[in-house]
Amino acid sequence: MSQKNILLILSHAPYGDAYAKEALDIALTAAAFGLPVSLLLTQDAPYLLLKSQQPQQIQQKNFANICSALPMYDIENIYIEARAAQTKRITLDQLVVPATFVNQADIALMIRDHDVVLRF
Amino acid sequence: MIFSILIYGSAHNSQSVHSAYRFTDSVLRSGHQIHRVFFYGESVHAASILSAPPRDELNIHQLWKDLAETHQLDIVVCIAAALKRGVMNEAEARRHEKASFNTQAPFELSGLGQLSEAAIISDRLVTFGA
């Protein structure tokens, strides 16, 4: 089997709908299959990585726990749309995992360089 | 060319499942292969045999069932997405001690691994989102 890499582009905030959860489930399964997985968080998705989220107040599971485990699944290519982070005042030290800021040109290259691109 | 299809738009509140159907039909008519169709998220309701739309509207379940049977398609419904939405076959209904079931062949319940495998095997994985 040829090696293919997957880019998951997330744009939804963590708790208002199921998209982030369903996208992360795909990421973890694909990584378990040995596929290189990259995550790109755009629009409201960077909130997924915040250390300070408190979803127990709305009886939801904390994405910080799932996201902090990503490197254990060999998902280390985690990118954040710089413009989204800026407008939300999100800085790298607020996050549960190391991530890299990328601009629109970087994103265009990432989409070109991945075999499978899924948007959630 | 080998295609696989990922659908996660709502079965009844978006065009997604029908667009995916039309695309899949076109792929087959054009002489290409469909390796797998994977229903995820809200699209799993398309697998319900209990869907009963008005007679003058599309029956999206029947369209997929007929297409799958005609072409022997592998149509997989994500088991986790389906079970939490109350879409289950006879075996799962028994396992979860439910009074009834609402999906059956050609729709198969299976895990997300089937999506990863489809991504590996296929030349193109085409997504129909919300």
UniProtKB/TrEMBL annotation, chain A:
<dbReference type="InterPro" id="IPR027396">
    <property type="entry name" value="DsrEFH-like"/>
</dbReference>
<dbReference type="InterPro" id="IPR003787">
    <property type="entry name" value="Sulphur_relay_DsrE/F-like"/>
</dbReference>
<dbReference type="InterPro" id="IPR017462">
    <property type="entry name" value="Sulphur_relay_TusC/DsrF"/>
</dbReference>
<comment type="similarity">
    <text>Belongs to the DsrF/TusC family.</text>
</comment>
<dbReference type="Pfam" id="PF02635">
    <property type="entry name" value="DsrE"/>
</dbReference>
<protein>
    <submittedName>
        <fullName>tRNA 2-thiouridine synthesizing protein C</fullName>
    </submittedName>
</protein>
UniProtKB/TrEMBL annotation, chain B:
<dbReference type="GO" id="GO:0002143">
    <property type="term" value="P:tRNA wobble position uridine thiolation"/>
</dbReference>
<dbReference type="InterPro" id="IPR003787">
    <property type="entry name" value="Sulphur_relay_DsrE/F-like"/>
</dbReference>
<dbReference type="InterPro" id="IPR027396">
    <property type="entry name" value="DsrEFH-like"/>
</dbReference>
<protein>
    <submittedName>
        <fullName>tRNA 2-thiouridine synthesizing protein D</fullName>
    </submittedName>
</protein>
<keyword id="KW-0808">Transferase</keyword>
<dbReference type="Pfam" id="PF02635">
    <property type="entry name" value="DsrE"/>
</dbReference>
<dbReference type="GO" id="GO:0016783">
    <property type="term" value="F:sulfurtransferase activity"/>
</dbReference>
<dbReference type="GO" id="GO:0097163">
    <property type="term" value="F:sulfur carrier activity"/>
</dbReference>
<comment type="similarity">
    <text>Belongs to the DsrE/TusD family.</text>
</comment>
<keyword id="KW-0963">Cytoplasm</keyword>
<dbReference type="GO" id="GO:1990228">
    <property type="term" value="C:sulfurtransferase complex"/>
</dbReference>
<dbReference type="InterPro" id="IPR017463">
    <property type="entry name" value="Sulphur_relay_TusD/DsrE"/>
</dbReference>
